Amino acid sequence: MSARRSVLHAAHWTATLLTAAIATFLAPIPFTGIYASAAGLIAAAGVCLAGLALAPHPKGTRR
Description:
Order of helices and strands: HH
Radius of gyration: 15 Å
Distance between the termini: 14 Å
Shape: elongated
Strand content: under 5%
Protein backbone atom coordinates (compact mmCIF):
# COMPACT_ATOMS: atom_id res chain seq x y z
CA MET A 1 0.00 0.00 0.00
CA SER A 2 1.41 3.36 -0.96
CA ALA A 3 1.81 6.23 1.46
CA ARG A 4 -0.90 8.19 -0.32
CA ARG A 5 -3.38 5.33 0.05
CA SER A 6 -2.46 4.87 3.70
CA VAL A 7 -3.14 8.54 4.41
CA LEU A 8 -6.44 8.31 2.53
CA HIS A 9 -7.55 5.29 4.57
CA ALA A 10 -6.47 6.89 7.85
CA ALA A 11 -8.32 10.12 7.05
CA HIS A 12 -11.46 8.25 6.01
CA TRP A 13 -11.64 6.10 9.15
CA THR A 14 -10.77 9.00 11.44
CA ALA A 15 -13.64 11.02 9.98
CA THR A 16 -16.01 8.03 10.17
CA LEU A 17 -15.23 7.26 13.80
CA LEU A 18 -15.44 10.91 14.87
CA THR A 19 -18.82 11.22 13.15
CA ALA A 20 -20.00 8.03 14.88
CA ALA A 21 -18.88 9.38 18.26
CA ILE A 22 -20.71 12.66 17.67
CA ALA A 23 -23.84 10.80 16.52
CA THR A 24 -23.73 8.68 19.67
CA PHE A 25 -23.95 11.81 21.82
CA LEU A 26 -26.38 13.84 19.71
CA ALA A 27 -28.95 11.22 18.63
CA PRO A 28 -30.37 10.46 22.10
CA ILE A 29 -31.03 14.10 23.05
CA PRO A 30 -34.82 13.98 22.48
CA PHE A 31 -35.18 10.60 24.24
CA THR A 32 -34.89 9.34 27.81
CA GLY A 33 -34.05 6.01 29.43
CA ILE A 34 -33.47 2.94 27.33
CA TYR A 35 -34.67 4.71 24.19
CA ALA A 36 -31.78 7.15 24.46
CA SER A 37 -29.28 4.28 24.60
CA ALA A 38 -30.89 2.59 21.62
CA ALA A 39 -30.96 5.81 19.58
CA GLY A 40 -27.26 6.41 20.17
CA LEU A 41 -26.37 2.84 19.26
CA ILE A 42 -28.45 2.87 16.09
CA ALA A 43 -27.00 6.23 14.99
CA ALA A 44 -23.42 5.05 15.54
CA ALA A 45 -24.09 1.77 13.73
CA GLY A 46 -25.56 3.65 10.77
CA VAL A 47 -22.53 5.90 10.53
CA CYS A 48 -20.16 2.92 10.66
CA LEU A 49 -22.11 1.07 7.96
CA ALA A 50 -21.96 4.16 5.76
CA GLY A 51 -18.23 4.33 6.45
CA LEU A 52 -17.81 0.74 5.28
CA ALA A 53 -19.84 1.42 2.15
CA LEU A 54 -17.89 4.58 1.29
CA ALA A 55 -14.42 3.27 2.20
CA PRO A 56 -11.71 3.86 -0.39
CA HIS A 57 -10.99 0.70 -2.34
CA PRO A 58 -7.54 -0.50 -3.37
CA LYS A 59 -7.76 -0.12 -7.14
CA GLY A 60 -5.94 -2.81 -9.05
CA THR A 61 -3.93 -4.21 -6.16
CA ARG A 62 -5.39 -7.73 -6.48
CA ARG A 63 -4.38 -9.92 -9.36
